[in-house]
Amino acid sequence: MSRAVFPGTFDPPTVGHLDIVTRAAAAFDELIVATGVNQSKNRLFGPQERIEMLTELVEPFPNVRIGSFEGLLVDYCRAEGAGVIVKGLRSAADYDYELQMAQLNRRMTGVDTVFLPTAPEHAFISSSWVKEIARLGGDVSTFVTPAVHTRLLNTL
Ligand code: PNS
Known about the structure:
Blueprint: E1 3-8, H1 15-27, E2 30-35, H2 47-58, E3 64-68, H3 73-80, E4 84-89, H4 92-109, E5 112-117, H5 127-135, H6 146-155
Parallel strand pairs: 1-2, 1-4, 2-3, 4-5
């Protein structure tokens, strides 16, 4: 049985993340969407809220569950018995950043990374920009699900 982990900060999850979940859920027997800590990012939502948003997001997928981790991603993968990490790639800049992490993760534990190219209609969406646009009063309703949009408006 193939088990994969789709890790991210998900602060908040976007429709781009949902697209990757949809495609990875079709490609693997089991998918764990896991919230981790990117030390370089300021977070708007706390861990529990991000887990709640992700739980709502993956509700339609019977083979997807939510997890969270604080240490190394590869340690989490090993503990969960997952041999593959799934990442979405939006651009060459993503590729440069993600390639290095993928190679480090594989060297450390043998856990491999599978990249899914982001759908073109989502390629410009990022959680960071969604937060900034929303903070400054812009309309982000097409970048996130309605449930996440409501939370964003209630949190800012
Ligand atoms: O939302 P992001 O920024 O793409 O998520 C990045 C994340 C959390 C997946 C990444 O920072 C990560 O794997 N953090 C866990 C710590 C870790 O394993 N660091 C070594 C990476 S080679």
